Amino acid sequence: MPDRYCEIALPVPLRSTFTYSVPESFDGQPLIGRRLVVPFGKRAMIGVGLAEADTPPHVPRVKPITKLMDAVPALTPKLIELGNWIGRYYVAPIGETFRAMLPPEIEVRHERTYALTDAGRAHLAELAANPEIIPMQPPERDLLQRIGEGHSISSPHLRRITGVEQLAERLVRRGLLAAVKSMRDRKARLQRIVAWKQSFTEINADPADLRTPSKERISGGRRVSQAALAAEARIRDVLTSERGFLPLGILIGKAHVSRAMIERFAEMGLLQTWEELITPGEDSWDADFTAPTNVLNPEQKEALGEIWRWIVAGKFKAGLLHGVTGSGKT
Questions:
Q1: Which of 8, 37, 191, 213 minimizes the number of CB atoms within 10 Å of its CB?
Q2: 216 CB-contact burial (10 Å; exposed 0-12 / middle 13-18 / buried 19+)
Q3: Could you tell me the CA-to-CA distances from 214 to 71, 204, 233 in Å, in that order?
Q4: d(CA 20, CA 57)
Q5: CA distances from 170 to 161, 167, 210 (A)
Q6: Residue 87: which of 14, 18, 19, 20 has the closest Cα?
Q7: Which long-range contacts (CB under 8 A, 24 or more apart) does 235-244 make?
């Protein structure tokens, strides 16, 4: 199989792309438009694949791509064409341009991993042999010994103790520790979604049971209280008036029912539930959002009318909206 190489736009202040080799493990997968994790100096970075090639660049060593982040391309060919045009027109770094076209990197966590340098190991050995000769603060000595015993330690572990991460950075500046930037996937978070399936009437085997003049009705072999019927009505109203399905926590608050009641209704076949992935930082299911109503003043209407004429003309045109901060340009 011939060697493959890929030009990748990285979010650095340079107007050039970087070429990386494609590992055989990628099994011929297309890379154009996909987000790729690559080594860049002493850290890992996320870039966008822009072009593939069969010939290597004229450099001593070509590093391989580390990881594919997307099952499908994050950017279509048209969006890649647009990103290249934006970079040329505004003379902007190509990697920064494509980073602005993508969502924030909320599915990965950036961290630093600390390890002892040769100087750090020598310092620890000398300190162990002559503790009275080399003055050193106990926290610094303890941190060096802890990292020396565990070989390396990441910044999330250090953040658990106040001030330890800053101490580690001081030891990096003194050359006793080395810090390497890395990325790792965030732990997946799931939320339970609840959807309306059917009512007591629809699952009832004998409609005559619904006419039972008592505080309970019989449904599917079970006695159903008037309170349960009222809860069913509230859940149905909330789900049918929203999207037909909602996260469990939001449904509990809107329908004023307990988690146990929803679990019971799901067992009885009234509700359908499943798990969905949520991402950190996501404002999930804000069902109460109402779009703001904006009333334009005469100057804003005049500006909007002019911009609309540009759009209808179907031709590119650059314009400048002049106004002080807070005047409503956005």
A1: 213
A2: middle
A3: 57, 17, 18
A4: 9
A5: 16, 5, 75
A6: 14
A7: 235/196, 235/262, 235/265, 235/270, 235/271, 236/196, 236/199, 239/194, 239/195, 239/196, 240/196, 242/287, 243/287, 244/195, 244/196
Q: Read off the tokens for 70.
A: 């997307």
DSSP for residue 64: B
Q: Are 37 and 65 in contact (CB under 8 A)?
A: yes
pLDDT tens digits, 189-244: 778 888 887 655 554 444 444 344 444 444 444 566 778 788 888 888 888 776 67
Full-model pTM? 0.48
159-176 confidence digits (pLDDT tens): 666 677 788 888 888 888
Residue owning tokens 């109402």: 290
